[in-house]
Protein: FAD-binding domain-containing protein
Amino acid sequence: MTVPSKTKDFEIAIVGGGIAGLVLALALHNRGIPITVYERSAKFGEIGAGVSFTPNAVKAMKICYEGVYEGFERVCTRNMWSSKLQTYFDYVSSYEEGKVVDETIAFSTTTSLGQNAVHRAHFLDEMVKLVPPEKCIFNKHLINITQAPNGRQVMHFGDGTTAEADAIVGCDGIKSRVRATMYGADHPCVTPSFTNKIAYRGLVPMEKATEAIGAEFAQNAVMHLGKNGHILTFPVAHGKTMNIVAFHESDGNWEDTERLTKPGRREDALRDFAGWSDNVTKLLSMCEEELPIWAIFDTGANPVPSFVKGNVALMGDAAHATSPHHGAGAGFCVEDAAYLACLLQSPAVQTSEDLAAAFQAYNDARLDRGHWVVQSSRYLGKMYDWMSVEGNDMDKIATELRKRNAIIYDFDVEGGIAQSVAELEAKLGKSGKK
Ligand SMILES: Cc1cc2nc3c(=O)[nH]c(=O)nc-3n(C[C@H](O)[C@H](O)[C@H](O)COP(=O)(O)OP(=O)(O)OC[C@H]3O[C@@H](n4cnc5c(N)ncnc54)[C@H](O)[C@@H]3O)c2cc1C
Structure:
């Protein structure tokens, strides 16, 4: 597809080049909307771990830009058994006080697309290939935003340089600096909150995993539930690797809120999951000896009051950082990007004067859904760890989970965007200010 030549009289700065920033960059660039991405690191990069996308996110990828979806398809891994191609996760109960549990599948969740997982770095590499290099500026750590006398936004970077744009989209993650400049450093929404969960993450060769726990549980997505913790696994890298994430209730506060990881060891994980099923012990035993401990933070205690202020907007984790229990945070980045790109593409949005209305329409459409997923994910974290009213009753867990999942997977992304664009056009007039 050829990129349409410049279609708008404004330029958008995207701060941060993670999944949110890069998908937005591709969605805007391929609509002929001028962009520049400012990334604080020397190059784009993601950690070596898995991330999975649900049907709503896959639909949103196609809306953003077909190339995003094609890149995703190239690196996507699904459940490896054909009988499980619609299964999202099989759920097993992996803990019983004082007993060795023999794991069997208690229930399964399904989606129209089953499980769709990627190795984060592989997916990001696919996106990076598609973004024109001249649109990306590295080593630009945003510190502050001010307004020029002509109304343009001025970004101030850590290296003492500045750059201007008509509008800024903060895609700079959970500790967003853009959010801090919008609300002031002392506003509660600036500081993310510890959800009291920690996680251990591992990638192990699939051959080894299959030998250890058997083909069915190794080669398809499984969620092991128990007291104060849960472990999820799914295949990535076209089935060559198994992604493991083990969540556990923390036994104390996270002292250093500046750092979201601290050094840990495999023994720590084995101690946390002592007395669980043999499969769980085997999974953790396969992880690296040095196993960093991740603190799970979110924006749930102090949600951001609005994702926009004038010509500055927040997207992805900068707007609504969620704990990972719904497996939806990255998918919501893509949904956000699809909304913003379609709103900005509307003929009603022509000059920088129209941007505030477009951003407001984005906020109106995304705020409640963004905040909901953060709270619902917190609930799932408790439910999976048998700390909610459902207790260890797997039937009750299944019922509650299916109800919440449907809100994510069955979301009508196209319909929602069409409505939002129509409302904006009604406000601005079909081809710019009424
Ligand atoms: C354990 C775990 C498992 C998860 N699993 C899933 C899953 O299965 N499915 C799912 O959908 N989601 C999942 N998520 C959530 C998902 O990872 C995030 O929602 C998503 O990666 C957020 O992307 P982002 O681009 O908004 O932020 P980030 O990935 O944090 O990217 C922010 C970017 O901005 C840059 N940056 C930061 N500050 C500045 C600055 N001041 N100036 C310039 N650049 C800056 C950073 O260097 C980075 O490149 C999981 C999260 C965790 C922790």
About this structure: Residues 82-114+194-298 form a domain with the D-Amino Acid Oxidase; Chain A, domain 2 fold (CATH 3.30.9.30). The radius of gyration is 22 Å.
